[in-house]
Amino acid sequence: MTDLGDDELERYARHIVLPQVGGIGQRKLKAASAAIVGAGGIGSAVIPALAGAGVGRLTIIDDDVVDRSNLHRQPIFREDQAGQPKAILAVQFVEGLNPLVQVSARQERLSIGNAETLLADHDLVIDGCDNFATRLVVADTLTRLKIPLVSAAAVQFQGQVALFRGWEAEKPCYRCFVGDAFDSDDCDTCAEQGVLGALTITVGGFAALMAIRAIVGIGEDVAGNLFLFNGEALDWRKIRLPKDPRCRTCSV
Questions:
Q1: φ, ψ for residue 100 (rounded to 5)?
Q2: What pLDDT is stored for residue 179 in this prediction?
Q3: Fewer CB near the last or first residue (10 Å), C or N of the chain?
Q4: Who contacts 174 (Cβ-Cβ below 8 Å, separation ≥6)?
């Protein structure tokens, strides 16, 4: 792993003094590459957290533009940026926050045809997109590529986050969790159901923490556990997900 320069030692000093991170952990973050699928509500929390933490290379994948209805939950964007591409703006945000991070934008819709090209060559992927069809394409592709997936979602007052490594024995994949009923774009999103802005920041921050833990190797392995957050009750629950022996993605 590459050594840390004087500017990095200063910037990440509060990380490095943590026994769970230290210089070794910070160098792991510097050496890591992560893709973020979706620069919306979840992504608006994940992107600053990973860039600030010093993850060495970030790829931001989003084909949408900023709308004023996004701003209550997507604080990396501004009022005067309405109509501009989210991926490009997110790159500019990262460059302003931490110029030590290499960041690139992929302003295209992720699909079966381009998923492997977009996601390969990353150490970890955080998916915060807003539809099941894309989520399943991401998850199936990452299982095939053997790349860890942090999946995060938020709607109304409910959030969920999980880490998946479905190619491993006894570890479920995302399809083990949701099954085959959601391979279409017509499922409800927060546009139809609404979402509290602070909820997406809470869930996205939790997803970023999960990703950093996985990169550095902090604490117990939580792959295969689903973390559920109830924003009304302010309550987190953890559920162990079983591996589906008939799953068409990870059990073949």
A1: -80, -10
A2: 86
A3: C
A4: 135, 136, 138, 139, 140, 143, 149, 151, 162, 164, 166, 249
* Domains of the chain and any CATH numbers: 32-240 (3.40.50.720)
Crossing angle between the packed helical segments 43-53 and 86-97, to the nearest 10 degrees: 30
The two tokens of residue 4 are 């840390």
pLDDT at 186: 47
Instruction: Determine the pLDDT at residue 180.
Output: 76
DSSP collapsed to 3 states, 236-249 = EEEEECCCCCCCCC
Given 3-state DSSP classes, what are the helix, strand and coil percentages for the chain, each rounded to the nearest 5? 40, 20, 40
Q: List strand residue ranges (DSSP E) for the chain, in order.
A: 33-37, 57-61, 102-106, 124-127, 149-155, 158-164, 225-230, 235-240
Q: Give the other-Cβ count within 10 Å of 113's Cβ.
A: 9
Type and span of the H or E element at 98 = none
- d(CA 70, CA 201) in angstroms, rounded, equals 13
